[in-house]
Design a protein that fits this description.
The protein is an alpha+beta fold. A 5-stranded antiparallel β-sheet has the order 4-3-2-1-5.
């Protein structure tokens, strides 16, 4: 399942006009977040999301963070780095 998710994510980033995913090293975003960090929505802490990678795409002012749901790696979401930094929306789990 992981390879299908990776293939899908590659197609998504290519649709933004990138030839390949442009992964941002953690130190480029001041160490926040690191791959493997866990987050939950502030209003719903039952779902825990794990950082898979951080990408810079031309269509977004902020880097985008790809999260997969803990214990359900086939479920993923993409959020702006600014959304994770806003503690009113996400908290570290």
């Amino acid at each position: 399942m992981q390879s299908q998710t990776h293939t899908f994510w590659g197609r998504v980033t290519q649709s933004f006009g990138l030839g390949s995913p442009n992964t941002v090293p953690s130190e480029d975003v001041n160490g926040f977040p690191n791959i493997g960090d866990r987050f939950a929505h502030s209003t719903n802490t039952t779902s825990v999301w794990v950082v898979e990678n951080v990408l810079r795409v031309a269509a977004s002012s902020y880097p985008l963070v790809r999260l997969s749901r803990e214990n359900h790696p086939d479920i993923m979401k993409v959020v702006s780095l600014s959304a994770l930094a806003d503690h009113r929306e996400f908290t570290r789990a």
